[in-house]
Amino acid sequence: MPEITNVKACVFDAYGTLFDIHAPTAAIANELGDKAQSLSDMWRGKQLQYTWLRSLMGRYTDFWQITGDGLDYALAAHDIENPDVRARLMDLYMTLDAYPDAVSTLEQLKAAGYATGILSNGSHKMLAAAVEASGLKPLLDEVLSVEDVGIFKPDGRVYQIAVDRLGVQKEEICFVSANAWDAAGAADFGFQVAHLNRFNQPPERLPGEPKAIMKSLSELPPVLA
Fold first, then answer.
1. CA distance 95 to 142
2. Sign of the dihedral defined by the CA atoms of residues 62, 68, 69, 74, in that order
3. Is residue 137 helix, strand or coil?
4. Would you call 13 a catalytic residue per the annotation?
5. Residues 97 and 23: beta-carbon distance below 8 Å
6. Could you check whether 9-20+96-223 and 23-94 share the same CATH topology?
7. Domain map of the chain by residue range?
8. pLDDT average, residue stretch 152-170
9. pTM of the model
10. CA–CA separation, 143 vs 35, rounded Å?
């Protein structure tokens, strides 16, 4: 596997990378039945689409609103009209489970002396709740949100937040994302990128190529030369 060299900080996307975005629908899958996975996939798809479209329209709103809007679309598309289901899914999204490989990997990185952080589309409130609930808080030096610049990834102003807050050069940051489009955006910005290909995505046809492609976060520490 290719090595990522001369790195001082490791910065992670949150949703789909550290936190399990399908945990909410899985938690009430018995009620949702055979619609559970389809609903979750559509919810995530619309959530991302709305970040891109609102960025293009110049109509920023926080990620909590976008998450609710995406869920409303997905529920309507699946003919689910149940306010209680909606409320529970949104509550569950605030306290997402961390993937099993997240804690151990962050522990290794901290022990090796790397600065660690999250850089996410999520709002400060959402990220604080997820970090606390997942047990990741002691393992993170920074939890950074696009709220500070009012536009979503992959706008370069978002990635610049990590450079400014961590006080390092952009090429000294290893950025890790399970979203191939985010990995491409971060690589084009100038980060050294590891694409965590949890979802078996084909390579994006976009500027910016990751230096490493992994199936698990546990593969990251050996990649860092």
1. 18
2. positive
3. helix
4. yes
5. yes
6. no
7. 9-20+96-223, 23-94
8. 98
9. 0.95
10. 33
Percent of the chain residues topping a pLDDT of 90: 96
* DSSP three-state, residue 153: coil
Amino acid of residue 83: P
- What homologous superfamily does CATH list for 9-20+96-223? HAD superfamily/HAD-like (3.40.50.1000)
Token pair, residue 212, equals 């490493």
Residues 93 and 67 sit within 8 Å (Cβ to Cβ): yes
**pLDDT range class, residue 225, cuts 50, 70, 90:** low
Length of the chain counted residue by residue: 225
Set 13, 20, 97, 101: catalytic member:
13
At 166-188, the pLDDT tens digits run: 999 999 999 999 999 999 999 99
CA angle at 176 for the pair 170 and 178, rounded to the nearest 5°: 140
- In this prediction, residue 75 carries a pLDDT of 98
- Residues whose CB falls within 8 Å of the CB of residue 217, separated by 6 or more in sequence, listed in order: 17, 18, 99, 101, 102, 105, 176, 196
What does the alpha-carbon distance between residue 133 and residue 94 come to, in Å, rounded to a whole number? 9
34-53 pLDDT, tens digit per residue, is: 999 999 999 999 999 999 99
23-94 CATH: 1.10.150.240
Predicted confidence (pLDDT) per residue in 52-106, tens digit: 999 999 999 999 999 999 999 999 999 999 999 999 999 999 999 999 999 999 9
Report the phi/psi class of residue 182: left, alpha or beta, with left for phi > 0 and alpha for psi in -120 to 50: alpha
Alpha helices in the chain (DSSP H): 23-27, 29-32, 36-57, 63-77, 83-94, 100-111, 124-134, 156-166, 180-189, 220-223
